[in-house]
Amino acid sequence: MDDPRIDGERLWASLMEMAKIGATPAGGVCRLALSDFDKESRDLFITWCEDAGCAISVDRVGNIFARRAGSDDGLAPVVTGSHLDTQPTGGKFDGAYGVLAGLEVMRTLNDHGVETKAPFEAIAWTNEEGCRFTTSMAGSGVFAGVYTLDDIRAHADADGLTFGEELERIGYAGAEAVGGRPIAAYFEAHIEQGPFLEAENKTIGVVTGGQGKRSFEITVAGRESHAGTTPMPARRDALMGAVHMIEEVEALALAKAPEGVGTVGMIEAKPNSRNTIPGSAFFSADLRHPDPAALDDMAAGLKRSCGRIAEARGLTYEMTEVTHYPATKFDEACVSAVRGAAERLGYSHRDIISRAGHDACSMAHIAPAAMIFVPCENGISHAEIENATPDDLAAGCNVLLHAMLQIDGS
Ligand SMILES: [Zn+2]
Predict the structure, then answer these.
(1) What's the domain count of the chain?
(2) Exposed, middle or buried by CB within 10 Å (0-12, 13-18, 19+), for 135?
(3) Residue 399 has what pLDDT?
(4) pLDDT of residue 348
(5) Cα 399 to middle of ligand 1, angstroms
(6) Final residue of a structural domain among 261, 294, 325
(7) Rounded to whole angstroms, how far apart are CA atoms 218 and 296?
(8) Which residues have a Cβ under 8 Å from the Cβ of 174 and sit 6 or more positions away?
């Protein structure tokens, strides 16, 4: 057998063609899950996969599977995938790259007449971004048994339209049961969405795992009173208590830098009137770390700090955990297939942790999984200026192809 390489120009052309669907004036993409643009991108992906001789199936949560038969078609498939949906001001590469890299693998196998032992599949997962409908990695999560189909279908967007209604409207509530089928290995190629590869001038990130995330909502209760007549020592200012708690989120992350990160993305004060001392304040706290013990430390530290600050200021607080994604450890054989492929193909590489959630993190629950990162410009993603070079994207796709072939033993 010859030693196949993917066609980087064809991959780039497909990415640019896909990026026209939902293109924004600023050069980005707005292709929200289950929107008309999402439907259009799915239709295009299916057309291309059928042209490449793949058999298509769609499951009840709308995940699309493009299958290229193997010589022993009863074997569990070697699989790759990602997502076609984007953030409202998303870019051309987050998600679409992994989906179209899967397609490029199929096209390359065809070009070189490669017969794999196991079937190969390229997947487009539904609603990875979790912005229009709040749960991220929804399609892969249902597939992996992390969520139930009924729960996900019931989620409504800001206009009150449910996931289930919209999935049916665009014609992608498929017939196939979700999940419950064996997978030999799952690989996902993705832009890094962070600065490390570019900064170190490395082409391939060998992703060994994903960081864990614990996300909290904290409500602080004090006492409303007059901003002019209430002396400072007599105040029970819920917002000032929250301000000091928020500072702790940053301090806890800095104490575990660079792995630890902490973010307060939402804040509300009540009654939000300029001359009333706030009686209630609300904020969110998002804590992440690749090491589960360190992440638990950060969460415990936040709880202690909130207690101490509340007590000192005559406040009470409630802290609710809204999300707990444990850290993901990818499969050693899959990770070393990625590392070995990068090595053999002569690409510079380093091991790296994924800082964002990905469909691969869902898949790691039920199958041997790993990811391949390529650099993106200035580490920026979830933005219209998101960018990556054709050469790096081609390199990541070559690594994907060769990692899949190695796992297949073909
Ligand atoms: Zn993504």
Answers:
(1) 2
(2) middle
(3) 98
(4) 98
(5) 18
(6) 325
(7) 17
(8) 57, 58, 59, 60, 62, 63, 64
Q: Which of left, alpha, beta for 320 (phi over 0: left; psi -120 to 50: alpha)?
A: beta
Residue 264 corresponds to which amino acid?
Answer: V
Give me ligand 1 centre to Cα 95, in Å.
Answer: 4
CATH code assigned at 104: 3.40.630.10
CA of 353 to the centre of ligand 1 (A): 15
CA of 297 to the centre of ligand 1 (A): 28
Cβ within 8 Å of residue 25, ≥6 positions away:
none
Q: Which segments of the chain have a pLDDT < 50?
A: none
How far, in Å, CA of 236 to CA of 313, rounded? 6
Ligand 1 centroid, distance to 289 Cα (angstroms): 19
Report how far ligand 1's centroid is from the alpha carbon of 170 (Å).
22
Contacts of 200 (CB under 8 A, 6+ apart): 350
Q: Cα(86) to centroid of ligand 1, in Å?
A: 8
